[in-house]
């Protein structure tokens, strides 16, 4: 009888002392779910201004509030979560690594391949844990997908598609060209990560993007393929909401991730003979961020410097695809 696997539990993990670098939207989501759902401790926060740092610390009951990122990385923490804008990840992750701290860096690790490679080299040279915060890959939902792929249940994977559309035209940062806004960095990174995870080694052969009045690319589509004629399509849009689904099509069965495919949610496998298997998970959106923190604690506790769920070579590979797609569509970074 066919059945879908259950996600594997993380097991016991150490309770790390986290330092939060930057006090924006994602930092709020991350800390609130960390405190609500794990035994991880948030012991320090750093902001460009003491006022915002103090406010964040008071909101979450954090002991130490610092008015500079330099002071934060010097504090007694086990790991620094870098939650600033895309273009600042390089400087702020470097600051933490140079202070001898492990890092979890928001996605994309940096928008440029050369900058990401520099961070990877720094972390590896210093023997420090470093991970891109692609939380999706740490979700229980994705452990189900991982086991389905490993089992060969789908047969030969022939095509993969992933699309993501969220109306973000009025967002203060996401569409600002000066902050590397546009569909690639906030959204495109997810579908490109997904297809590169399922079918690594494919290259972008075509990409086209349409510029929005803000000056950023509002939406883009990319086609990836390889010598084995496998096909991947990716689409990301900030000018319209789309179902945000992902599909892995194999010779025996097709796996469908209802939208948003990068959040907690169900997994469905449809066989060619008509049988449908479904694994259900509550759609709790960014509450699921805590799983990546547990993965960081698990890795650091086990003495690992990279997560097997999101190794640094996988980060480099996705950033290379992003860069290639941007080159093809004429979307230079500031
Ligand atoms: N994993 C996810 O689901 C997810 C979702 C959204 C965003 N993200 C990623 O998280 C990162 C941050 O996104 P966000 O939406 O949280 O951004 P945000 O709300 O704008 O927060 C960014 C923070 O960066 C700090 N910062 C440092 N220099 C800055 C400058 N020159 N201008 C503005 N802020 C500056 C600020 O913190 P201080 O004022 O405290 O210094 C600010 O609060 C992005 O790389 C994005 O891709 C991930």
Automatic annotation (TrEMBL):
| One Pfam family in the UniProt entry | GFO_IDH_MocA_C3
| Alphabetized UniProt keyword annotations | Oxidoreductase
Query: For the Gfo/Idh/MocA-like oxidoreductase N-terminal domain, which residue ranges apply?
Result: 16-131
| One GO MF term | nucleotide binding
Which residues are in the GFO/IDH/MocA-like oxidoreductase domain? 144-255
InterPro entries cross-referenced by the UniProt entry: Gfo/Idh/MocA-like_OxRdtase_N, Gfo/Idh/MocA_domain, GFO_IDH_MocA-like_dom, NAD(P)-bd_dom_sf
Which superkingdom does the taxonomy of this entry point to? Bacteria
Q: Does the keyword Transcription apply?
A: no
UniProt similarity note: Belongs to the Gfo/Idh/MocA family.
The entry's protein name is Oxidoreductase
């Amino acid at each position: 009888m066919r059945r879908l696997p259950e996600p594997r539990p993380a097991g016991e993990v150490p309770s790390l002392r986290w330092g939060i670098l930057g006090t924006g939207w994602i930092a709020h989501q991350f800390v609130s779910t960390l405190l609500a759902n794990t035994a991880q401790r948030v012991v320090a926060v750093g902001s460009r201004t003491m006022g915002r740092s103090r406010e964040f610390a008071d909101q979450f009951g954090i002991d130490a509030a610092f008015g500079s990122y330099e002071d934060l990385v010097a504090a007694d923490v086990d790991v620094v979560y870098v939650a600033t804008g895309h273009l600042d990840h390089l400087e702020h992750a470097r600051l933490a690594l140079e202070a001898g701290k492990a890092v979890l860096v928001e996605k994309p690790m940096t928008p440029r391949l050369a900058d990401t490679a520099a961070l990877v080299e720094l972390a590896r040279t210093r023997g420090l844990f470093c991970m891109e915060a692609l939380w999706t890959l740490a979700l229980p939902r994705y452990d189900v997908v991982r086991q389905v792929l490993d089992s060969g249940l789908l047969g030969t994977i022939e095509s993969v598609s992933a699309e993501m559309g969220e109306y973000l035209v009025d967002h203060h940062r996401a569409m600002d060209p000066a902050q590397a806004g546009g569909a690639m960095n906030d959204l495109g990174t997810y579908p490109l990560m997904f297809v590169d995870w399922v079918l690594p080694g494919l290259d972008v052969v075509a990409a086209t993007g349409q510029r929005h009045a803000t000056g950023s690319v509002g939406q883009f589509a990319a086609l990836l393929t390889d010598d084995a004629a496998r096909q991947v399509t990716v689409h990301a849009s900030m000018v319209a909401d789309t179902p945000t689904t992902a599909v892995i099509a194999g010779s025996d069965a097709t796996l469908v991730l209802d939208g948003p495919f990068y959040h907690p949610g169900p997994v469905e496998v449809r066989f060619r003979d008509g049988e449908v298997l479904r694994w259900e998970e509550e759609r709790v959106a960014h509450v699921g961020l805590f799983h990546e923190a547990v993965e960081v604690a698990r890795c650091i506790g086990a003495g690992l410097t990279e997560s097997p769920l999101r190794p640094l070579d996988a980060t480099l590979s996705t950033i290379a695809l992003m860069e290639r797609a941007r080159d093809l569509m004429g979307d230079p970074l500031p």
